[in-house]
Write a structure and sequence with these properties.
It contains 19 helices and 2 strands. The chain is mostly helical. Belongs to the sigma-70 factor family. ECF subfamily.
């Protein structure tokens, strides 16, 4: 097996083996160090000597021995912890502990930023440097964030939660959605996309879906990611400029990904209850079903946003409903709905509210108002790609 193939296999096995060790020993950080040492040994031996018949068992055995060696070398913990550890490898269960590890990384005592970083590190297999680059923070700051997250989990107890706990599953889905959104539309920096983050979020969502195939919200989230990510190549020009949905060349959308996402969206709606990810997937599927922007079923989109607004009130949902309403009843109706967000501190000066208001004012013929809002939106965003687009719109309406 080539070194690249070994690397792919190890990336798949690492969270499984880490899950086994954390379940057995209960010490997240020490177990992660032991697994990384085992991975290093595998990356050096397997390309030369061949992959063992049971690679997960091999990694678990080596990692367990490394962990026991760590305990031996730690004089402060030797007496109280070594007695509880055995030198033989933990029995490798038939079940995969990756999902449980993901739940542990999304511990409710952690902030969303810490949950996201720890998930990418422990489950996604990204290095601290890779995560730091993705979120445009210094590597040292990211390392400190991940270390604090591990310490908080240790203080709270590293017990594995049950995957049937809907409250904990909600945290997991939220973290995966945050990772995907940051990859699909970067909150800052020169690029609109961060493809590595979007791909990683989809990979993790597929993993969760494979283990919880009957959960409608898990299915809905995966569908939403696929339906959204299928449009990625049409969202920017070759020079990196943003292309809004209405102006995108839909022939460049990834049809295979759209078909898979649509089927998953339909499957998710077959459940007895509706959740926010199912509804957002249904909205994305409605957009995907339209051959042109003019053929979009805006009444269906608006109806779905109304339901979403009732079950998961959120200013961004109201913002998107205003766009759909404007397509049905005209820009003034959309502007009236947008005005209800002016008192919401989360959105009042947000660049997305300002940019949508500018767009609707432009459609209503209020070019001075559109110019002012495009200008303010450009100042408010940290994304260089969005800033360029908004500045160009401001210049066009001022001509």
């Amino acid at each position: 097996m080539s070194a690249a193939s070994v690397e792919d296999l190890l990336r798949e096995l690492v969270p499984q083996v880490l899950g086994v060790l954390v379940r057995r020993y209960g010490q997240f950080e020490g177990c992660e160090d032991a697994v990384q040492e085992a991975v290093l040994a595998a990356s050096q031996q397997w390309p030369v000597e061949g992959v063992p018949n049971n690679p997960r068992g091999w990694l678990s055995t080596v990692a367990s021995r490394r962990y026991v060696d760590q305990l031996r070398s730690d004089q402060a913990r030797r007496e109280r912890e070594l007695a509880n550890a055995v030198e033989t490898a933990p029995e490798v269960p038939d079940t995969d502990d990756t999902l449980h590890l993901l739940f542990l990384c999304c511990h409710p005592t952690l902030t969303p930023a810490s949950q996201t970083a720890l998930t990418l590190r422990a489950v996604g297999g990204l290095t601290t440097a890779e995560i730091a680059r993705a979120f445009l923070v210094p590597e040292g700051a990211m390392a400190a964030r991940i270390s604090r997250a591990k310490q908080r989990i240790k203080a709270a107890g590293s017990s594995f939660p049950g995957s049937e706990d809907p409250g904990r599953l909600q945290f997991v889905l939220q973290v995966l959605y945050l990772i995907f959104n940051e990859g699909y539309t970067a909150s800052s920096g020169s690029d609109l996309h961060r493809a590595d983050l979007a791909h990683e979020a989809i990979r993790l969502a597929r993993m969760v879906h494979a283990r919880l195939p009957d959960d409608s919200e898990v299915t809905g989230l995966l569908a939403l990611m696929l339906l959204t990510h299928a449009r990625r190549t049409a969202r920017t020009t070759p020079s990196g400029d943003l292309v809004p949905l209405a102006d995108q060349d839909r022939t460049t959308w990834d049809r295979a990904m759209l078909d898979e996402g649509t089927e998953l969206a339909k499957a998710s709606l077959a459940g007895s209850a509706l959740g926010p990810y199912q509804l957002q997937a249904a909205i994305a599927a409605t957009h995907a079903d339209a051959a042109t922007a003019e053929e979009t079923n805006w009444r269906q989109v608006h109806a779905l946003y109304l339901i979403l607004e009732r079950i998961a009130p959120n200013p961004v949902v109201t913002l998107n409903r205003a766009i759909a309403l404007a397509e049905i009843e005209g820009p003034r109706a959309g502007l009236a709905l947008l005005s209800t967000l002016d008192s919401d501190e989360r959105m009042a000066r947000h660049h997305r509210l300002l940019s949508v208001r500018a767009h609707l004012l432009e459609k209503a013929g209020d070019l001075p108002g559109a110019y002012e809002n495009y200008r303010l939106a450009a100042k408010a965003t940290a994304s260089i790609a969005e800033k360029r687009y908004l500045e160009s719109r401001a210049a066009q309406v001022r001509e």
